[in-house]
Amino acid sequence: MSPSSKSRRQNVTLSICYQRAKPDAGGSLDEKTIDRLFPCACQSDDGTWTNPTASRSVELEAMARKSRIHEAEDASAAFLLAETDKLDAYADDLEKAADAEIKATEDEIKAAKKGRSSNTVLSVNDKVEEQRAIKKARGASRRIAVGEV
């Protein structure tokens, strides 16, 4: 690339940036654009060359990274809290369903006992079958209470 074309490119770039900033209307270029357009290296007293804009951009990037990490942690904490609330509600629903099922089974047992005591004319085999059904219902009720089902 010839020096004149490089110079022309720089002039066009500066012109575009100047138009976008609209300094006549009170606008200005952002610092990142200025740092990219005008890199400035300097020599310290001990003879080493440094680029203050490069070190500043590293600091800005580190601050931006910390900010993004903090935002991600906040979002993650909010998500975890929401999911924990959902799981707690689900556990409460399961507990209520188990309690309702236990109550229904206990009602069946009471009805079966009541029916057995009112039917005095049943045969021994029928009474044994009813007793087994009651024991089976009690076992189911206990399994529900323990959480095996």
How would you portray this structure in words?
The chain is mainly alpha-helical. The chain folds into 2 domains: 1-38; 39-146, no CATH class. The protein is built from 4 helices and 2 strands, in the order ααββαα. It has helices at residues 3-21, 31-37, 52-118, 124-146; strands spanning 42-43, 49-50. Strands 1-2 form a two-stranded antiparallel sheet. A hairpin with a 5-residue loop joins strand 1 (42-43) and strand 2 (49-50). Helix 3 (52-118) packs antiparallel against helix 4 (124-146). The chain is rod-shaped, with a radius of gyration of 40 Å.
Secondary-structure topology with pairs:
Elements: H1 3-21, H2 31-37, E1 42-43, E2 49-50, H3 52-118, H4 124-146
Antiparallel strand pairs: 1-2
Shape: rod-shaped
- Number of DSSP E strands: 2
Structural class: mainly alpha
State which percent range the strand residues make up. under 5%
Instruction: Report the helical percentage.
Output: over 70%
Q: Element order, helices and strands? A: HHEEHH
Q: State the strand order across the main sheet.
A: 1-2
What is the typical, i.e. mean, pLDDT?
Answer: 75
Count of all domains: 2
Q: In whole angstroms, how far apart are the ends?
A: 79 Å
Q: What summary fits the major beta sheet?
A: 2 strands, antiparallel
Over the alpha carbons, how many angstroms does the gyration radius reach? 40 Å
What is the overall number of helices? 4
Low-confidence stretches: none
